[in-house]
Backbone:
């Protein structure tokens, strides 16, 4: 479960002064559901997700992730979260196995249970063939599979995806989309950000439209359609943003 | 702080760095080959150059050789001198390094020697600062000096006087410093200088790779999203940079000691001058251990400073441009320690880098000023702790970690 309350992030820039990257954003994501943050570039999606993953500290408000406070218990939060984005690269000089093992150890796993978990994930994601190859020798698709194994090694109850399909080819993007669906089926709480309308339509149980750091609208696709009186999600998005 | 996490981060960084050719080059290859290359390689090169110069001989132009046939003949028969035909542009030829020196002999030189006339003046035209011209100058000076002595001897004999009367007393010189002090005085300043530089450069590449490199490759967000705390992360990284720095310095010291053992004898033989009491380059195991002990806090100081500075950059190139001035700042005090007259005292013992350089110089000459050694180790450790503190703080600042 994720519960954001008045989550705020303000940056100070010498030239531009105070920037409200995220402005009092509140929402709730339930286990077994996918929550989609839909917004243009610079809307505040990445900053929101980084705050939930405790990579950034909120300047106002707070959030609870898997029952832990992001400000008070950041390490417990990170232990409950799998975070994946196109910016989360892999260590080029480590092999796939070493990479997953490293993150497993940082999550408190070791010895037999860690080996068993890695074998299980590698079988599930079909990594076995390139398990001992260095990450810089892997294709984009293979790297994404290793990244998925990395985020799942500690079997976290919450998954955070920040624009996970940006820049990926169709086949690799499909792997990611399938993986997100799989997470939902297994009862994980999933939040992901995107600016691709079709992805949001396909995947999300609840959609939040974010613009200039503010959450402008929220609901299921049916609710958003009903409220706006428009069927197409892209039109709903433009309508919501222009009305703000 | 969970030490198991620090250990996990450290082991991963170590494995990662050991697979990086650039780290291996700066941490292992450079310190091992530098000293042998500098001493044996440079020594052989220098010897070959000197031999070649000797074989070629110094080209000398004799102006007015006809005024001093005996002297001219003596110069012609001197080994290492090649007489070239007289030309009017001899000054330009010296400046252009076509010939090395020219000797001007005035008219009536021989007659001047025989009679009671005013002593004739010969002039050597040379190129100040040009090594081969200076060699030729010294060779000619020696020939002229020997010739002058013979003339004086002849004159004294003609006047029935003994040549000994020109030498009312004799002088001798004797080196009383033990061999390790002599060797230390000759190389004592230079060796710590190189070890200090290597301690810094050995840490520089890993420090950049572990900070700015992570940002550039996009792995910083991956690791920050894991349960490891930022303090555990920076301490693990810091230990790796210290490992690189110490490995570099240990290998440098070992390579230096090995070079000493192998090439020391050759040096001793070539540096011994007649009349001096054995100038041996001896270095004790105790001195090597003491130098390493003094380098320890310096490695920690360099590692902390390098990490904090490299973290400010968002790319490898940017980090390099930040670290280059630091290398100059670190080299300057090491150079100051090479200057004559800069001696270790309680004030200089507080100046980072310079203090270690000066005390290493003392240690290599066999002096162990224990009070100052303690002061230097203490102050260096304090600076090292401050650098580590700054690095830890930098890792907790979002504006540093996510600079765009």
Residues:
């Amino acid at each position: 479960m994720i519960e954001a309350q008045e989550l705020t992030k303000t940056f100070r820039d010498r030239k531009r002064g105070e920037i409200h990257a995220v402005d009092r954003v509140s929402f709730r994501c339930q286990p077994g559901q996918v929550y989609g943050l839909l917004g243009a570039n610079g809307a505040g999606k990445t900053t929101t997700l980084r705050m939930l993953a405790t990579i950034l500290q909120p300047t106002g408000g707070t959030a609870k992730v898997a029952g832990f406070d992001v400000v008070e218990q950041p390490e417990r939060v990170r232990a409950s979260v799998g975070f994946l984005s196109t910016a989360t690269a892999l260590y080029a000089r480590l092999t796939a196995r070493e990479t997953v093992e490293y993150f497993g150890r940082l999550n408190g796993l070791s010895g037999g249970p860690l080996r068993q978990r890695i074998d299980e994930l590698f079988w599930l994601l079909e990594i076995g063939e390139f398990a001992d190859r260095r990450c810089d020798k892997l294709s984009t698709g293979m790297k994404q599979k290793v990244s998925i194994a990395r985020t799942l090694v500690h079997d976290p109850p919450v998954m955070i995806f920040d624009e996970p399909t940006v820049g990926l080819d169709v086949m690799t993007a499909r792997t990611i989309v399938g993986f997100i669906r799989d997470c939902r089926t297994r009862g994980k709480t999933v939040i992901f950000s995107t600016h691709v309308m079709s992805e949001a339509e396909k995947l999300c149980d609840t959609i939040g439209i974010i613009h200039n750091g503010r959450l402008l609208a929220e609901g299921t696709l049916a609710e958003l359609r009903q409220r706006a009186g428009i069927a197409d999600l892209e039109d709903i998005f433009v309508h919501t943003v222009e009305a703000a | 702080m969970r030490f198991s996490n620090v250990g996990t981060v450290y082991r991963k960084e170590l494995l990662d760095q050991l697979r990086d050719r650039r780290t291996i080059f700066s941490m292992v290859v450079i310190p091992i080959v530098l000293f042998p290359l500098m001493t044996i390689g440079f020594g052989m090169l220098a010897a070959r150059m000197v031999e070649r110069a000797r074989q070629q001989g110094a080209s000398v132009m004799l102006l007015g050789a006809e005024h001093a046939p005996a002297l001219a003949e003596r110069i012609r028969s001197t080994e290492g001198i090649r007489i070239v035909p007289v030309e009017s542009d001899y000054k330009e030829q010296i400046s252009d390094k076509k010939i090395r020196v020219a000797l001007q002999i005035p008219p009536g030189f021989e007659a001047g020697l025989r009679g009671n006339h005013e002593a004739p003046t010969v002039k050597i035209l040379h190129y100040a600062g040009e090594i081969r011209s200076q060699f030729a100058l010294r060779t000619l000076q020696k020939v002229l000096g020997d010739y002058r002595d013979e003339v004086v001897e002849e004159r004294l004999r003609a006047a029935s006087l003994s040549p000994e009367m020109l030498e009312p007393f004799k002088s001798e010189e004797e080196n009383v410093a033990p061999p390790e002090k002599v060797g230390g005085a000759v190389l004592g300043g230079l060796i710590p200088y190189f070890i200090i530089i290597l301690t810094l450069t050995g840490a520089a590449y890993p420090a950049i790779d572990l900070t700015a490199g992570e940002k550039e490759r996009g792995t910083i967000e991956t690791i920050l999203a894991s349960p490891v705390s930022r303090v555990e992360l920076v301490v693990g990284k810091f230990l790796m940079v210290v490992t690189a720095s110490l490995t570099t310095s240990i290998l440098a010291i070992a390579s230096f000691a090995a070079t000493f053992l192998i090439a020391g004898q050759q040096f001793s033989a070539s540096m011994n001058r007649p009349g001096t009491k054995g100038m041996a380059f001896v270095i004790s195991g105790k001195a090597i251990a003491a130098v390493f002990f003094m380098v320890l806090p310096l490695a920690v100081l360099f590692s902390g400073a390098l990490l904090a500075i490299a973290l400010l950059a968002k790319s490898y190139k940017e980090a390099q441009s930040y670290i280059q001035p630091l290398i100059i700042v670190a080299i300057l005090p090491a150079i100051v320690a090479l200057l004559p007259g800069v001696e270790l005292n309680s004030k200089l013992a507080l100046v980072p880098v310079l203090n270690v350089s000066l005390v290493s110089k003392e240690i290599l000459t066999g002096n162990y000023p224990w009070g100052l050694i303690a002061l230097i180790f203490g102050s260096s450790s304090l600076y090292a702790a401050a650098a580590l503190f700054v690095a830890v703080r930098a890792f907790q600042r979002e504006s540093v970690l996510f600079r765009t």
